[in-house]
Amino acid sequence: MAMLDEDTGRLVASGARTFFTFLLGAAAGATAALLLAPYSGRESREKIKDVARSARERVGRIPSAVREAGTAAKDAFGETYTEETSGHRA
Q1: How far apart, in whole angstroms, are the C-alpha atoms of residue 11 and residue 78?
Q2: Distance (Å, rounded) from C-alpha 81 to C-alpha 73?
Q3: pTM, entire model
Q4: 3-state DSSP call for residue 12?
Q5: How far apart are CA 36 and CA 13, in angstroms?
Q6: pLDDT band at residue 41, thresholds of 50, 70 and 90?
Q7: Residue 9 gets which letter from DSSP?
Q8: What backbone torsions phi and psi does residue 86 show, to the nearest 5 degrees?
Q9: Does residue 5 sit in helix, strand or coil?
């Protein structure tokens, strides 16, 4: 979701949108490079399969990475909340 920057009056893309736009651009660039490369059709198809397989493996790791990041954030928030509510600071 885009947000309005109050200082400049411009729309600013969210981090997630920027990330997915980057991924889309990277995928388009990789596809164009493979299709325009001086390889035979068979070699190009094999390369595309390899890239797709690698992408599937990377995407498959995202849910666990998100869960781990969420757990770490929850733990950090809990520790900070406990410190702030008990009046103690590290």
Answers
A1: 33
A2: 12
A3: 0.38
A4: strand
A5: 32
A6: confident
A7: -
A8: -90, -5
A9: coil
DSSP for 63-82, written as a single string: HHHHHHHHHHHHHHHHHHHH
- Please report, as a single letter, which amino acid is at residue 6: E
pLDDT (0 to 100) of residue 13: 61
Q: Which residue has the higher pLDDT, 1 or 80?
A: 80
pLDDT given for residue 1 in this prediction: 53
Q: CA angle at residue 77 from 11 to 5, to 5 degrees?
A: 10
Residue 73, pLDDT above cutoff 70: yes
Domain span at residue 16 reads: 1-36
pLDDT at 83: 82
Domain check: are 45 and 32 in the same one? no
d(CA 23, CA 43): 24
Residue 2 near residue 12, CB atoms below 8 Å = yes
> Which pLDDT belongs to residue 79?
87
Residues 46 and 82 in one domain: yes
Tokens found for residue 78 = 């809990």
